[in-house]
Amino acid sequence: MSSATQSIVIRGAQIVNPDAVFLADVRIVNGIIEAVGENLQGDLVLDGTGCYISSGFVDLHTHLREPGKEEAETIESGSRAAALGGYTAVVAMPNTDPAQDNVATVLFVRERGIEAGLCEVVPSGCITVGRLGRELVPYDSLSRVGVTLFTDDGNGVQDAHVMQRALTAAARLGVTLAQHCEVSALTEGAVMHDGACCSSMGVPGWPSEAEEQMVRRDIALVRLTGAKMHFLHLSTAGSVQLVRDAKAEGLPVTAEVTPHHLSLLDEMLLGFDPIFKVNPPLRTAEDIAELKRGLADGTIDAVATDHAPHAGHTKEQPLDTAPPGMLGLETALGVVNTALTLTAQQIAQVMSWAPARIASLPQQGRPIAVGEPANISVWNTTDVWTVSRHDLASRSNNTPYHGMELRGRVRHTIYNGQVVVQEGKALK
Ligand code: DOR
Q1: Contact by Cβ (8 Å): 140, 119
Q2: Which structural domain, as residue segments, surrounds residue 305?
Q3: For residue 73, which of 197, 288, 290, 309 is within the disulfide window of CB 3.0 to 4.6 Å?
Q4: Whose CA is nearest to atom 6 of ligand 1?
Q5: Is there a single domain that holds both residue 344 and residue 381?
Q6: Confidence of residue 1 (pLDDT cuts 50, 70, 90)
Q7: How far is the CA of 116 from the centre of ligand 1 (A)?
Q8: Which HAMAP family does its entry note (predicted)?
Q9: 180 and 282, same domain (yes or no)
Q10: Among candidates 60, 299, 90, 329, which has minimal Cα distance to 178?
Q11: Are 92 and 165 in the same domain?
């Protein structure tokens, strides 16, 4: 029997759907869920005991580094890290070299993702040419080849008029702009959150206001243009309140938070370890509490990793010169489940259903039901494991969680009907 016609059964897990959580076996044939029921038989049987089955996780914010920085990550190594983290789709951030501001680069990224075959690689497009904040990218041609999310991530679009024009193009095409909220005039030379720790360390601080000013401005521009706006990696209590108010007003805004902004504090930088340097910076306990509240009340729609690999020799520099960013894909479920008390449905909501909708991915975030595409993750909230930077599939090892104990782990990932992760091991 060829692998295309082989049937796969996941046995003994609880299915997590928006309307119900229930125990049942799932059988997959030819990339489709063919049966959901009791005592199903198959050519390959995967043990789901003690686990949940949901649609695969979808990461709205992954830096795959290819083309341009393959020493840090490739589309293949990043896709493998994603699959191990239970992801069946990742949105590839555009700060590659060349940047994803043109059709050829976008198609290259998508093709390399298909070749890797470990998850759906969804290229984002830039908002402006070269992410320089001046000239608009060719929105019509990028939208024609299927780009639905545009961002200059790594940079915020500083000029309000450029942003207004980009939003007008986005509204016309029905696509979404995702903003990295940072007023760069307020973050010049900054290495960490502008608070008590930063003052005691004598390093330049990054004020919350640098993020909130841009969130505030962009909400006003959404009101003006009617375009859909997604706020990347929110990190401050004030940002959460601004988005909450915008949603209450009925504006088409969505937002994400990273696992690290939900779990790590600015004080972790007291030892000057660049592993904790990230943009936006780690903040305070009050910010974390509000980010958690925002996730619980639906102000924040999704958890997104901002998986940002950096090769050892670049990251291991003094705090002021080390690049910002940390790995996220392989630890996301464990961090989220350890830092927050969420039900299985809430986890699936913020890690699969909502991000699939925000990125407009028809094959992702679907219910576990007959006839649906087999993009599936099997995971639990009970396994306790210790993160080791030596065990990661990413080409880089800049995880801030090395040596930490997490609860909750991915057991199997099925992408496009193929088992890509079995018993926590990547199959290719
Ligand atoms: O910490 C970060 N690293 N934040 C970003 O916005 C960009 C990212 C990167 O590309 O390394």
Answers
A1: no
A2: 59-358
A3: 309
A4: 154
A5: no
A6: very low
A7: 24
A8: PyrC_classI_B (MF_00220_B)
A9: yes
A10: 60
A11: yes
- Concatenate the DSSP letters of all residues of 253-300 into one string: EEEEE-HHHHH--GGGGGG--GGG--SSPP--HHHHHHHHHHHHTTSS
Q: What total of structural domains would you count in the chain?
A: 2
Higher-confidence position of 4 and 115: 115
pLDDT of 3 above 80: no
Q: How many angstroms does the Cα of residue 25 sit away from the middle of ligand 1? A: 40
Dihedral over Cα of 117, 118, 119, 121: its sign: negative
Cβ contacts of residue 207 below 8 Å, gap of 6+? 186, 187, 194
Residue 99, in any domain of the structure: yes
- At 161, the pLDDT band (50, 70, 90 cuts) reads very high
- Spatial contact of 13 and 6, defined as CB atoms under 8 Å apart: no
CB contact at 8 A, 104 and 67? no
Query: Domain check: are 143 and 231 in the same one?
Result: yes
pLDDT at 2 > cutoff 50: no
Q: 260 pLDDT exceeds 80?
A: yes
The answer on pLDDT for 305 being more than 60 is: yes
Task: Give the CATH number for residue 41.
Answer: 2.30.40.10
Tokens standing for residue 75: 């589309």
Q: Which of 65, 260, 279, 319 to mutate to test the pocket of ligand 1 (most atoms within 8 A of CB)?
A: 279
- Span 61-75, mean pLDDT? 98
In a domain, 34, yes or no: yes
Confidence of residue 123 (pLDDT cuts 50, 70, 90): very high
Contact 426, 416 (CB under 8 A): no
Place of tokens 């049987």: 45
Per residue in 393-418, pLDDT (tens digit) is 999 999 999 999 999 999 999 999 99
The whole-angstrom separation of Cα 221 and Cα 358 is 19
pLDDT on residue 5: 63
Going from the Cα of 63 to the center of ligand 1, the distance in angstroms, rounded, reads: 8
Catalytic residues, which ones?
306
